[in-house]
Design goal:
253 residues, alpha+beta, Porin, 2 domains, eight-stranded antiparallel beta barrel, 8 strands, 23% helix, elongated
Length: 253
């Protein structure tokens, strides 16, 4: 009698396990599909760095032999740091976005004696705060459909570069004719670049990052930018643009 009861007991367990297995498999499929779709994606944030040299000396003809920027600050480039926030308006035909950016640049150099042109101990500081509004297109269809992790992109937009020059006392100089050591210059920019989607190297970790932090994709990128900050045709504007490159990291969320 006992053996009959044991047989019925193990038979019931086997039948129950057979019923539960499809349910577990179905739950795993749902979980995998949910992770693959990811959280909603509407925005992006970029942090990038690159060398920069404002083309102030381009305002002066080569024959004039005047190079105020080079004379004060030298011929080298300094670091420009930029942050950008994008609103991704259209997706799945590539990504169409609008971006707002702000950067920071600072250069300090020694002043020259007005009569002897000798270098003095006094310093002057030039600061730039470039603000940008960009129309952006990222061709990410190859990644979404074929998991090719390289995403080319382009940007085109307008800029306003606020600039200040401080003397050795930390003051903004003014001259009797009304000139000032601070102002702003309008301009435009064009950018082409290439992103590497890091998710491809560890998709499970990327899915977990998305689930916990809401970060859909993480990208490293490299780009070339031409910034023409010369006033958009206005006269007597300080030229502070440059043609340079940037590298950085982008998070889409």
């Amino acid at each position: 009698m006992t053996s009959v009861r044991l047989t019925l007991f193990f038979g019931a367990l086997w039948a129950a396990s057979g019923l539960l297995a499809p349910a577990r498999a179905h739950a795993q499929v749902i979980q995998t599909e949910r992770e693959y779709r990811g959280s909603p994606q509407h925005f992006a944030f970029e942090l990038k760095f690159g060398p920069y040299k404002p083309d102030i000396d381009s305002e002066f003809p080569a024959a004039s032999m005047r190079h105020p920027y080079q004379d004060f600050f030298g011929s080298g480039r300094k670091l420009m740091t930029t942050m950008e926030f994008d609103w991704e308006i259209i997706r799945h035909i590539g990504t169409v976005a609008v971006g707002l950016g702000v950067g920071y640049f600072k250069e300090t150099g020694h002043n020259l004696n007005a009569s002897t042109l000798a270098v003095t101990q006094d310093t002057s500081t030039l600061r730039l705060l470039p603000f940008s509004l960009s129309a952006i297109y990222r061709f990410d269809l190859a990644y979404e459909r074929l998991r090719i992790p390289l995403v080319p992109y382009g940007k085109l937009g307008f800029d306003y570069v606020y600039w200040t020059v401080n003397n050795g006392n930390g003051e903004v100089p003014n001259d009797p004719t009304g000139g000032s050591g601070q102002g702003g210059t309008l301009g435009w920019h064009a950018t082409v670049g290439l992103s590497l989607v890091l998710d491809i190297f560890d998709q499970s970790a990327a899915n977990q990052f998305d689930e916990e932090m809401g970060i859909n994709h993480t990208n490293l990128f490299f780009e070339f930018t031409h910034l023409d900050a010369s006033g958009l045709g206005s006269s007597n504007r300080l030229h502070v643009g440059d043609t340079t490159w940037n590298a950085g990291i982008m998070f889409e969320f």
